[in-house]
Amino acid sequence: MHYRGKFLSLFSGCGGFDLGLLQNNFKGIAAYDINNAVISVYNKNVDKVGEVRDLLQDFDCPIYPDVIISGAPCQGFSTAGKRKLDDPRNYLFIRSIEIALKLKPKVFVAENVAGILSGKHKIHYMDYAIQRLSTSGYKTHLFTIDCRELGMAQRRKRAILIAWNTDRDLVFSRNSYAAQNIRNVISNIPGRIANNDTTACAAVGKHLLIATHIKPGQKLSNVRNGNRSVHTWHIPTVFGKVTRKEVLVLEGIMFVRRRIRKRDWGDADPVSIKDLKAHLKFDPSVEVNSLIEKQYIKRIARHIDLTHTYNGKYRRLHWDEPSLTVDTRFGSPLLFLHPTENRAYTVREAARLQGFPDEFVFDGSLHAQYEMIGNAVPPPLASYLAKTIEKLL
Asked: Distances in Å between the alpha carbon of 149 and those of 108, 204, 297, 319?
């Protein structure tokens, strides 16, 4: 068989990036990751070239690849995390650049979260990477893409860096396809298929009681108003009963905390009784004391604030819309709810939303399986990039 090119995979994970290249007739020569579990799954499903290796250690590659792909850890760049500039995981992105410059492939492609393009992280990591590649003779192109543009049923925006030292010009199609919805992708999963245990992700106990109050397109949120937000005081069976006047106080706090700001960071501040009284047009002192006893609000010095500042728990997705970003917590009903059932998503459902074929079987602990899927580069995105790589070789 004539291959379009040989590639080396850095921070391969379970192999989503690699699968997309293999589907386009590239040949993998090696795949490295420090995690034993993901390499085991890689070797069973993708190709038997996966190897557990700490990429911080120096190493020699026996075959110089035409292409190097990198899916370096994204947690330190993600806006969902603490975004510490000196998070040690961030250096792994630079490490992939160092390895590429040592092995000198014709094409290098790195995928990461769009957060790597924001603030000081862009300067310290992405801009630095581009500068090093450029001074070593590589042409570079940086862009973002949302997986919905590829016809996937998932809102997933990613930053892509392509570097090449061939005489070809970068040509790729950004033709958008209509995004699929969740119904298209997961409503027809066969009953007897691997990784589709619905009991493992069921909502139980208080999670079940809360889930029954969340409709499609809604979430548990005490810090936003509107039809998409269900507040804790709407679920007295879990959080305790409140009077109609106490609800007015809670809604008043929700309103004032975001509009009378005292700090130059975050999106809300604790509320003073004076400001709350001015907003409500009545003295809320009795209700405030009662709500403190019921643990709906708390005192912070001379101010008060909501106890449960939820914004985004128990999100029940809608059948007829694309999914939110499939992350490592997609099996938790505390965070994500199936459109019609009181549970989160099975491993197979999460894998389908990420574009993995049904014959790709995940194993290990359930936590590990969801991590593999959430951390993976979606194979359809990788396939799209493979077509661009082919034109550069």
From this structure: 23, 36, 43, 19
Asked whether the CA dihedral 343, 347, 351, 356 is positive or negative, the reply is: negative
pLDDT tens digit string along 221-242? 999 888 999 999 999 999 999 9
Closest CA to 329 of 39, 80, 34, 96: 80
Which residues, given as ranges, of the chain have pLDDT below 50? Answer: none
Which of 8, 156, 36, 165 lies closest to 96 in space, CA to CA? 8
DSSP for 247-292 reads HHHHHHHHHHHHHS--SSSSS---EEHHHHHHHHTS--HHHHHHHH
- Taking alpha carbons only, the member of 285, 258, 282 closest to residue 270 is 258
Query: Token digits for 193?
Result: 């298929």
Catalytic hit among 14, 61, 74, 201: 74
Q: What are phi and psi of 315, to 5 degrees?
A: -75, 120
Pick the closest to residue 348 from 360, 336, 364, 338 (CA basis): 360
**3-class DSSP assignment, residue 384:** helix
Assess contact for 253 and 291: CB atoms under 8 A. Answer: no
Q: Is the pTM of this model over 0.85?
A: yes
Residue 316: what are its φ and ψ, rounded to 5°? -95, 115
Distance CA 95, CA 99 (A): 6
Question: 311 and 224 in contact (C-beta within 8 Å)?
Answer: yes
Q: What is the pLDDT of residue 263?
A: 82
Residue that has been written with the tokens 């995979």 in this structure:
9
- Token readout for 174 is 């950004």
Q: Is 74 a residue of the active site?
A: yes
Task: Quote the pLDDT of residue 58.
Answer: 80
Q: How far apart are CA 327 and CA 302, in angstroms?
A: 39
Residue 3 is given by DSSP the state: -
- Extract the tokens encoding 184: 């298209």
Task: Report residue 228 as tokens.
Answer: 């998409």
Residue 100 burial (CB count, 10 A): 27
Q: Give me the residues paired with residue 150 across strands.
A: 177
